[in-house]
Structure formats: C-alpha cells, structure tokens
Amino acid sequence: MNPMFQDPIWQEKNRQVAEGAPQAMPLAKQYGGKILWGTDVFFGDDACQNFRQEFAYRNDVFTPSEQMQQVTGNNGEILKLAGCKDPYPHGDLGVIAERAYADLLLIDRDPTQDIRMLMDADNIDLIMKDGDNYKDTL
Which residues of 10-28 are buried (b: 16+ CB within 10 A; e: fewer)? Predict the structure, then answer.
C-alpha cells in the first residue's frame, strides 16, 4: 500500500479529487481542455489494480479513440514541455513516427470499438517497451 494513502490528510485530499473528477471530465471536454491520463485520481490506494478501471470510468464521457489519444499522444506532448527534464529527450513519445519511442501493445480486438477490453491483461498478446518484450503469447 502506498504510504501516502495511510495519512488521513492525503486520504481526505484523494477523496475530494475523486469526488470532483466526475464533474471535471465533461467540462474539460466541453471547453476543449487537454485531457491526460493518470492512474491515481479515481479509485484509492491500489493504482496497479485500479488504473484499469479508468477506461470504464472515462467511457461515460470519452469515446475509445479519445481515450487512446489521451493515454498516448496527449501525455507524450505534455512531457515534451518539461524541456531539459523531459524523460524522453531523444525522440517523440505517443506517436507512430520515425525515431519515436516505440512501446507496443498487440491485441486481437479493436479497442476503438470497446476500450474496456484493455482492462483485462489477458486480451493483450504482446507488450514491448524500449524494444524488450514483457509479455509475448503469440
């Protein structure tokens, strides 16, 4: 368990963020805000388990394609704003382009039809990060 979630002050802050997020998402979409992907906003202290629920949570507001843009391109675009602190300084992130960082997921279904299929790791056949395979069931 993340120690910050054991602190009552952090627990209250997290509760307030989780309570406000349902109103913030539709407003950000309505007014054209840049929406990013995070893993600790909605569901408490188990980010490893709960981040998958975010696909379902966002599904009420965003299309699957919008969610895919948030989790890839938008996050990569914002990281570039870090300048010299950019953790990926040698190429673009979140795009398919020459010299871009190439992390890949191979799946046997179309996430643009139902993004929630990514909530189950069994639906992912290949996970590659920085050229190394972390999962390969092909």
Answer: eeeebeeeeeeeeeebeee
